[in-house]
Structures are given as C-alpha cells and as structure tokens.
Inverse folding.
C-alpha cells in the first residue's frame, strides 16, 4: 500500500473498531460481558474497569455473574451498575453480583435495530469524511510537490476502493447485529 494511503486506512479501521465496540455494548437479550466495558468502578480512588476489579463470567445465556476480588467492592460495583444506562437491576448475595437480562420485547428489538442502523450510518459518514480529507490532501499535495494528475487520480481511486471496502464492512456489521437483535 502507498505510504500516503496508510494513515487513511488506519483511520477507517479505527472507525470500524469503534462501531464494533458500540455494537458490543448493545444488549441483545443475551448476556454479553462487553456491556460492562464502558463502566468504571472506584477502586481505591482510581476509576477502574469492572473486569479489572472482579471476575466476570456468563454462567447462563441470560446472566452475567460478577465476583469482586475483594468483598468490599460488591457495593461499589452494584452502585456503578445501578447508576449506569444498562437498565438492569443487579442482585447480590454479599459476595457475587448477578445481572439477569430480561427477554427483549418486539418493540424494544425494533428500537435497538433502529439504533444499530443509526450507528452504522454514522460510521459510514465518518468513513466518507476520511475519504474527503484524503482527496483534499492529495489535491494539495499535487499543487505542492508537483505530482502528476494521473498519480493523484490513482491515489483517489485507491482511497475510493478503500472506502467501498469499509462501507461494505459497516453494512455487514449492521446486518449481523440487526439479525442478532431480531432473533428471539
């Protein structure tokens, strides 16, 4: 790959990774420990990911079990989950916190599918913006460094192919996540 294209490929890849992370946080009626990824718990004055303060497991398809390494952390983790936007009430037995995911209603599934589509569209816009930035940079480069129009066209064609590839990946991710959400 041309060195001038590498930075734009990296940016598009990061956009894709970000979309996958966002999709990982969307709960599909099945327990997915990634819904906890963005939550931070106060661990001796330091905001720490729950996974670093406790053992997180999925003993059943619709349950996440969180076992803090220190019993004193149970209340702290529980408080973090309650104040988050997860919409799940944790239960605890003094040592272990359990999150039981309810079955999603048809209405909620449709809402989530819309949200998935919206996040996908935002990722596509981001990819297209990266393409635009690349094309602008190539035009400036052409004026500055006396690069032939053919070479600039070649770079623009390469960026377009890259854009098409990532847009197709976004579409595939949207389709897969929507299918996962709509499956009862």
């Amino acid at each position: 790959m041309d060195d001038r294209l590498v930075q734009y490929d990296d940016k598009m890849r990061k956009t894709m990774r970000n979309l996958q992370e966002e999709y990982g946080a969307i709960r599909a009626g099945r327990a997915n420990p990634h819904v906890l990824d963005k939550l931070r718990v106060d661990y001796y004055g330091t905001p720490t990911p729950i996974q670093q303060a406790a053992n997180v497991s999925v003993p059943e398809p619709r349950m996440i079990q969180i076992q803090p390494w220190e019993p004193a952390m149970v209340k702290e983790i529980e408080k973090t989950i309650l104040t988050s936007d997860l919409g799940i009430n944790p239960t605890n037995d003094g040592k272990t916190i359990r999150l039981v995911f309810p079955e999603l209603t048809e209405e909620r599934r449709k809402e989530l599918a819309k949200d998935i589509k919206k996040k996908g569209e935002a990722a596509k816009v981001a990819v297209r913006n990266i393409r635009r930035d690349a094309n602008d940079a190539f035009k400036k480069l052409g004026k500055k460094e006396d690069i032939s129009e053919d070479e600039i066209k070649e770079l623009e064609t390469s960026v377009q192919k890259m854009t098409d590839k990532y847009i197709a990946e976004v579409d595939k991710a949207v389709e897969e996540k929507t299918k996962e959400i709509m499956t009862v």
User: Anything to note?
Assistant: DSSP finds four helices and six strands in the chain.
